[in-house]
Amino acid sequence: MQCRPLIALTAASLSVAALPATAQDLTTAERIAVDKVVADGLASTGTPSAQVAVVRGGRIVLVKAYGRQSDAAPARPEAPYQIASISKQFTAAALLLLEDDGKLSMDDTVARWLPGISGGDRITIRQLLSHTAGLQDYWPQDYSFAAMEKPTTPQAIVDRWAKKPLDFAPGTQWQYSNTGYVVAGLIAEKAAGEPLMAFLQRRIFRPLGITAIDQDKAVGGSFPVGYHRNALGPVRAAPPPAEGWLFAAGELSMSAGDLAKWDVARLNRSLLPADDWAAQEKPVLLADGSTTNYGLGVSLGNRAGEAYVEHSGEAVGFLSENIVFPDRKAAIVVLTNADFGDAFVTIAQGIAKVVLPAGADAIEATRTRAARAMFDALRNGTLDRTRLTANASYYFTPQVLADYRASLSPLGEPTGFELAAPKRLRGGFVQRRYTVTYPKQKLSIGTFAEPDGGERYEQFLVSPAN
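Above: the chain's sequence. Below: its structure in token form.
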């Protein structure tokens, strides 16, 4: 079980400065575009199904399933897909919470908790979680090997792989190691005095309303089936490995929507103390001072000026991607039930281009969403006057607001809302015009907004359109 590389998001899809976080529902056009991205990704690779979730403006704005999760059933948005190595950030979070509880320290040596581990007197918990311990990875393959046909236990994995000679001196190199996470999980259980899954349920999943189960139990019945493909041969159901082979390195199954709840907590710095989130997202340095671009259970980076927090996952028959853009208050989750092809990558790329447009396009998309939010407020009678200049606030008298609500509310939900012409300057303000589409009519909105970044409206006028 490897952690696949970071999705190769293009610079164009990420190049943007920090933008204000507002309620950013997907437009009808964006939803259609996302549907096409997913359909194309599944069709081009033969991947049977995908679940996707999108967070924008700090809240979940899309959860949807596509394709078939098994030969017998269509994909369901609430079905738990195996997220494999994305689980590592939850293991790391458990250990950070135990440190908060005074049960352990990230700088404790492994030998303090578990005897017999190679280099245990030099390896710290932090090094286990950052893949800098030097312990040999027990599952680097992208397939299940012979031993995996029989059940195992975390201790058996430790006995077979964590007692081999180290691949390098602790702290001197970075090398992905599932073995290190199995050791970390055993330490967590010893410090907590309960099974890791029970601790996660009590401290993370139940508080966030996440339904998570052990992937060994997410097999058969109504659960998604994992699929494999040999070269360009037929897509076949992949026999799952025997129980016990993932544990703290990747044992979780959950839906894309539930994983997105965790992403929202990360973006909002909720549930965990803020310093725990910061510790998880701080790149660990090697002994020579170079960065690993990895924190505690998450990959870290900056592409085209935008920071991301990311991890992918691979289990037998499943590939997944979870990427968070803190400056955008955004996240994208893609879960698939195939361990072949790059659908999980291309879908995530495509969704990012749709919902997180780049550069000037991103700014205009954000302004359009803000205009849509203002229009919705006016038609629903929930105007926020902090979004208005003094002149605009003067204009929107109780009578004007009543007329707006009475005439717009009966029209229902628009089928389209888009920028009608390029922006231009007028009287020291930025002028934009939008077209609102309904099944039987169109409206025109003329706006003037401040150019200084405050973006309060000096004018927001709605009128009939041809």
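The mean pLDDT is 90.
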